[in-house]
Fold this sequence. Notes:
The structure holds two protein chains of two kinds. Chain A is of the alpha/beta class. Chain A has helices spanning 3-6, 11-20, 25-37, 88-94, 96-102, 113-121, 352-360, 365-376, 378-381, 387-402, and strands at residues 48-49, 52-53, 73-78, 84-87, 124-130, 135-145, 149-158, 163-172, 180-190, 195-203, 208-218, 223-230, 235-244, 250-259, 264-273, 279-288, 293-302, 309-319, 325-334, 339-348. In chain A, the strands form three sheets. In chain A, strands 3-6-8-10-12-14-16-18-20 form a nine-stranded mixed β-sheet, covered by helices on one side. Helices cover 28% and strands 28% of the residues of chain B.
Amino acid sequence: MSTQVHANLTRDQVEQISEQLGEPEWLLETRLEALDALDDLEMPDVIRTPGRDWTNLDALDFESFVDPLNAAQDKERVSAEGIEVLEWSDAVAEHGDLLEERFGSVVDPEENYLTALSTALFTDGTVVYVPEGVDAEDVKIRTTMNSQSLFNYTLVVTEESSSVTILERQSTGDAVEGERYYSGIVEVAAGENSHVQYGSLQNLDDETYNYTLKRGTADTYADVNWIEANMGSRLTKSEVETTLDGDGAESHIVGAFFGHDDQHFDINSRVWHRAEHTTADLVTRGVLDDRARSVYEGVQDVGRDAWNTSSYQRENTLMLSDESEADASPKLIINNHDTEASHSATVGQVDKQDLFYMTSRGVDPRSARNMLVEGFFVPVLEEVAVDELSDDIEELVAERLRN
Amino acid sequence: MSSDQDHLKETDTEARFEFKKEENSAFQTEKGLTEETIRLISEDKDEPEWMYERRLRALKQFQQMPMPTDWPGQPDLSEVDIDEIVPYIRPDIETRGGAENWEDLPDEIQDTFDKLGIPEAEKNALSGVGAQYESEIVYQNMQEQWEEKGVIFCDMDKAVQEHEEIVKEYFMTKCVPPSDNKFAALHGAIWSGGSFVYIPEDTTVNMPVQAYFRMNSEGMGQFEHTLIIAEENSEVHYIEGCSAPKYSAFNLHSGGVEVFVGENAHVQYSTVQNWSKNTYNLNTKRAIVEEEGTMEWVSGSMGSKATMLYPATILKGRGATDNHITIAFAGEGQNIDTGAKVYHNAPDTKSTIESKSISKDGGRTNYRGLVHIADGAENSSTSVECDALMFDNESTSDTMPYMEIQESKVDVAHEATVGKIGDEDVFYLQSRGLDDDDAKQMIVAGFIEPITEELPIEYAVELNRLIELEMEGSLG
């Protein structure tokens, strides 16, 4: 499974990427080790039940679309006062020590085949550094992918008592022959009493395969909050995760997806409670139309020492078409009894009574359905701190409903 | 509907039995389970050739299938030593599988018998010490009533001889094929004993049919096979096992249960399992339900070192219904991994799963369940509810449901909660004069009430008493 890509990739390519970015020796080593590790690494975990793979990543033909040296993109970065938002080569030049300390500290580069591939080949990255006590809003990182493949890396470090809201979005620009691959790794290290909201809107074209791993660690009294919106791509495997390492830490993971045609979304929200008095709230809402298929896995893992934990999870899927499929597995793994944990999941259609009520008020059935679907996303949109993100999600949902 | 057919094919596996004769030699090792052993068992039972063939095919399946090891959080099965099995299943070796003498029984089991107030004869049977035990008189009276109605209730070995055609058609062919999992294959090779129940059309059996009365010393029912066929418009309640602990020197229990629920028929299958805490309890239970039929599983898992049990229902006919009620109690050193599986393969089918688990003193419970709604199973609905109660931070409680929804006109809901006993509830009961232990016992009894009220009174009482004993920590 894994060797096929490896044959296509060389140490020379990795050295060339690293040199162009002016990277220090340790980073080149990390990349080369990740490259070497590809042979032994497995694809990210997917759920398998008897006779059924919920997502089949092994079938992806990487060789046809991994082209590391010709990465091309348009990138816009909007910074905020008092903080630094740096492109990778600048970060390497100005924050060498910070990178050496933090790079790979939250997401192990060799965690799975795709993280190692991304680590070996990423050609651009962004570092958001928020100094102690600074409050920053509306940081924006917009990526437009113009090449066959693009590997992206983002590091967010917030010092004590700071806060930041970030919007990241991916879309595709110039058309490319055939299929594409986008891979993004995001590490968030939230310092004591700091607050991070990281919102992401993925709207890649329908020929793009997308792998995203976003993971944060929350120190004492810190918040790490994620908004994960998936609209585009052919197939997405998205893993959004928080480790609550410090007492009193919190995490909200909010997800939204809207699949149509033959899109496949494999959405994973996971939280690990590893300290006392921690709180997590996982909310995902998705809509499926046409032959789209969704896979959802939510994990709430409460450790032995996580006294006084509160952990909640909800997942709701609306099916607009008979051809769509929804798989869901919300998991509770509880090792401390001093816990209040719950999860719920539902799958169904637009509520018939709601529809009846609206049509009885003179709204035509199609508009009524569309309004109910838009309303379905409201609990998710309310969580979004960056207006541009909630506006864009709303717009994309509306657009998809009207087509 | 084509999707129906696809799913049902998975259960109809005669075709998958195609094995080549040349492969035989590979399995002829001296140690452990061999074809020779299977031949001896089959000869001893004087079985027809087809059953012997089926056993051999199952043995090959077993030898080829890997041990399940990659399920997240599953019990460790590395101590299950299949080679040790031979003395317990070979008819030419003298042993009953139980303890040789009353004194050889572990203290905690003797203690539990005493505390439950189990009569001497029953104690002996349960521990394997006694000779064959059957409540002949009660049993025979019932037998006569049933026979008038055409109901058949007999030992599975006897059914192979006396009802050969039915058994040949249904035995591990359509419902639980040996290829289903490694332990189903093992079961198919070495099964012995169990019950055969046949309920004719339009017949209602008012009194629960209890395997309890049928229990005997033969293999302690460790590899028993239960086959229940309920024809159109019939109704039966079958009860397996009993809540008193069963002791066996060999540590594997691998039973098989197949239930066929005919059109508009109603079958309830209740189990209270309390194997001694050295036992690995790995069962395969499955029902196929025709149009408008109803299947109900009620399971209590109290004993064993490790249990892996997921009763499954295939809702094959339009309007079929399935209800699961399960309770698991894991104390020190126990890993109870249970759940339910439901396949909605027809329109208008309905299922509910209610699971309660309690973990204490380092015990581990896991709800592992699957609900599958096939494309075309319109207007199906399913509701899953899992509640777990934890006593301490040594214990573990996992909930791992899987939902596969391929149809849009459905109503799917899943809910789960995990928590400790409410301090306020305990405080309230204490303020009414109960001590801490009694208060907790009462809360637990309330927590599992949905299960106990489904059981006949004597089982419910015994189950409650058993949980009280577990709560006192007076049992091993």
